[in-house]
Design brief:
about 0% strand; single chain; disordered N terminus; mainly alpha
């Protein structure tokens, strides 16, 4: 049979490459966010697919001495066409992910804030900041009171230790001087009285700190 001449391939191949170049520009525009070109992209893809099907038939019917060159050009066209389809699919996936994120964000927010909502939000934030400042100030005041209470308790413990030492020394002196039992009882009663004062002081200090914590916080 007669071989297909080069004229149809020579005519169709440049047309297919022009369509491929135009398709590449549209895909790049779509990747930058222009969704209006999708209709043109689909139309060009269909035309280019028809060109490739026709070229495949023509290349198979080429004479042996011309088939290698024609097939090489056809394979290049197919390779670049597939690369464009892959890039387009990647952009479509990205757009779908962005739309899904926007939808989830709008669903999470529920509604757009109005001017009144913004005012209420600002007032709520101001109140929260004011409360936080008060709490911080109260914490610093409580830290100072706790330090003062700790020093007072330390002083009471020191006084208790001193009283015990004084009692022991007086007992030794009384034994050496032969003081009466009545004097010893008075000394012991004073020591017990000082011990009660120590415990009462501890209780009052802890009660004051508890009340301050309760009413301030």
């Amino acid at each position: 049979g007669r071989y297909i001449t080069m004229s149809e391939i020579e005519r169709l191949m440049p047309v297919s490459y022009r369509r491929l170049l135009e398709l590449q520009q549209l895909v790049e525009a779509y990747g930058k966010g222009d969704a209006t070109v999708m209709g043109q992209i689909i139309g060009l893809q269909e035309q280019l697919s028809g060109d490739c099907e026709r070229l495949d038939i023509l290349v198979r019917k080429e004479p042996a001495h011309r088939r290698h060159n024609s097939k090489y050009r056809y394979d290049q066209l197919m390779h670049e066409s597939r690369a464009l389809n892959t890039a387009l699919q990647k952009y479509r996936n990205q757009h779908s992910a962005q739309e899904r994120e926007m939808s989830e964000r709008e669903e999470l927010l529920g509604k757009q804030f109005t001017a009144n909502d913004n005012s209420d939000t600002i007032l709520a934030l101001d109140a929260a900041l004011s409360f936080n400042d008060k709490v911080s100030h109260s914490n610093r005041g409580m830290d100072r009171m706790l330090d003062t209470g700790a020093q007072a308790l330390k002083q009471l413990r020191d006084q208790r230790s001193n009283l015990k030492a004084i009692k022991n020394r007086m007992a030794g002196i009384a034994n050496s001087l032969g003081l009466s039992t009545t004097v010893m009882k008075l000394v012991e009663r004073r020591s017990a009285h000082d011990q009660y004062l120590f415990y009462i002081g501890c209780f009052v200090t802890l009660t004051i700190m508890f009340l301050l914590l309760y009413y301030v916080l």
